[in-house]
Fold this protein.
Amino acid sequence: MEQQEESPPPLYLAAPLFSDAERNYNVLLRDFLVANGHRVYLPQEAGDGLEGSGRDRAIFESHIAALDRAGCVVAVCDGADTDSGTAWEMGYACAREIPVIALSTDRRGSWDGRKANLMIRESAALAGTPEEVVSLLRARFSPTDPGS
């Protein structure tokens, strides 16, 4: 019987999502990760079509369920300080022992210069490009060769 390759668990893409630029980047990053073989939960799409008084609770519960299913959180940590929602998602993942990859394409070098908050910095592997994220994911989720 031929053994089927198991797909890696889904990723949770934690990122700021309040400007058009942020939302567009998140979609580009999600599409890049999908093109590289990953299933991705994109929080900004969770509330589409929801209205009314229960909307916020439904979005919150959807995000928690997606975090609990995630094999890894990919967190966009650009800017002078990490977005508060992204930081919360990173902390939740860390507490649940879900690995976190922080993507910082910010040219101000806050990670290299150790200016990033140490709780954020120490809770994640750092990537400087989407390609580096994929490389870290491959290292984490590639099947091990039983012959090596």
About this structure: Residues 20-35 form the longest helix (16 residues). The beta strands are 11-14, 40-41, 72-76, 100-103, 125-127. Helices lie at 20-35, 55-69, 84-95, 118-121, 130-141.
